Amino acid sequence: MGRPTKVTNKIRALRFANAEMTQAELADRIGVTRQTIIAIEQGRYSPSLEMAFQIARAFNVSLDDVFQYPDSEGETP
Amino acid sequence: MSFEEKGTWVYLVVNVVTYAAYLSIILGRAENIPLTEVSYVSTMLWTIGIAIALSIVGHIAVAIAKPGEADKRDVRDKDINRFGEYFGGIVLAVGMLVPFGLAMAEVDHVWIANAIYLAFVLSALTGSVVKIVAYRRGF
């Protein structure tokens, strides 16, 4: 099985840029389990639009600053 | 591993172990007599009852081991659960065609009851395996 989603993200970098926020802290802020944050970071789970906005809000950045999507097949953002 | 994933593992292991125990008991009894004459009803009911009890005890044990994670169920858990139940449901629907056909063919009740039980077990196993793969590899 390949990557289940083409959506990539910068959550890990953003966590470190925000006072080295832990996965557990981010999970608590948006009301999910730590395992879900790990799965999103690793590209194993594509979050809902609402959860994506919650993650962006936790870092005080826009959605595009957290999540990226390639323009066409095989193209990386 | 999330609480829900651990619960899925418990359900999978309990189903495999109890069904294997049931089969070994029934097949053991059928060594010297035909399978259709083997007493199976109480064994099947006990096996199902024990499987339900073990699943509950297993879930409680998982919750006691990490109380902080107990009953924490988020949107990903719900998505994965729905995904696994969808495949389990397909297996159950297809599997039920076998006892349906056996009943119409008026074969012995032992075959019909066991075909229904097997369909439930296969449905549970499929659902559990799909959920675990979704947890491990992504969804």
SSE layout and pairing:
The complex is a heterodimer of chains A (77) and B (139).
Chain A (H helix, E strand, L loop, with lengths): L7 E2 L1 H7 L5 H8 L3 H8 L7 H11 L3 H4 E2 L9
Antiparallel strand pairs in A: 1-2
Chain B lengths: L2 H27 L11 H25 L9 H21 L1 H8 L4 H29 L2
Helix pairs in contact in B: 1-2, 1-5, 3-5, 4-5
Textual characterization of the structure:
The complex is a heterodimer of chains A (77) and B (139). Chain A is mainly α and 77 residues long. Chain A contains five helices and two strands. Chain A has a two-stranded antiparallel sheet with strand order 1-2. In chain A, α2 packs across α3. The mean pLDDT of chain B is 93. Chains A and B meet through α3 of A and α3 and α5 of B.
Condensed summary:
The complex is a heterodimer of chains A (77) and B (139). Chain A is mainly alpha-helical and 77 residues long.
Q: Reading side by side through the largest sheet of chain A, how are the strands ordered?
A: 1-2
Number of strands of chain A: 2
Report the β-strand fraction of chain A as a percent range: 5-15%
Briefly note the structural class of the backbone of chain B.
mainly alpha
- Low-pLDDT residue intervals, each spanning 5 or more residues of chain A: none
